[in-house]
Specification:
Strand content: under 5%
Strand order of the largest sheet: 1-2
Helix content: 55-70%
Order of helices and strands: EEHHHHHHHHH
């Protein structure tokens, strides 16, 4: 919503997936690979999707992946994902390594994916799973860069 001369203006945004269906199909193909074609646990995938979306500020993806996670994870744990480092007892070593790697890869321009972060992720995942995890992070970053600027609507109600 924009304000102009004291009046609120709602700006309708494009439905990116309708405007560019072939691009959407390609991106959803990567999503399908990550969610169905890897050995990564479904809960871990949604955890990574949520954390990346929180960093990128994509309301639609935060809403969706919070809902997905609440199917297998307590509300307390989902609520504390943004501060996972402060509550290490709530997340396994592998989940913490994945969250740290997701943050470093998502904030690549700042972190440059340091050797320490890579070593921690590589110690928690075998080679294929680490590549698949990184593909999952990259895919969610791509979705966030469409969902946030095109303001996809959330399912949450007041």
């Amino acid at each position: 919503m924009l304000s102009f001369d004291g009046k609120d203006i709602i700006v309708d945004r494009l439905k990116w997936f309708e405007v560019a269906p072939e691009g959407a199909k390609a991106l959803f193909g990567v999503h399908h690979y990550v969610t169905k074609g890897t050995n990564l646990p479904e809960e871990l995938i949604h955890l990574i999707f949520l954390r990346v979306s929180q960093i990128n500020g994509c309301a639609y993806c935060i809403d969706m992946h919070s809902r997905d996670l609440r199917k297998t994870m307590s509300v307390d744990r989902v609520t504390l994902v943004p501060v996972w480092k402060e509550v290490p007892h709530l997340f396994s070593d592998q989940y913490r390594a994945a969250l740290a790697w997701a943050e470093d890869v998502t904030n690549l321009s700042v972190t440059h994916a340091p050797d320490e972060a890579y070593a921690a992720a590589a110690s928690a995942f075998d080679d294929k799973d680490l590549v698949d995890l990184t593909i999952a992070i990259a895919a969610m970053n791509a979705f966030n860069r469409l969902g946030a600027p095109f303001r996809l609507p959330v399912a949450a109600k007041a």
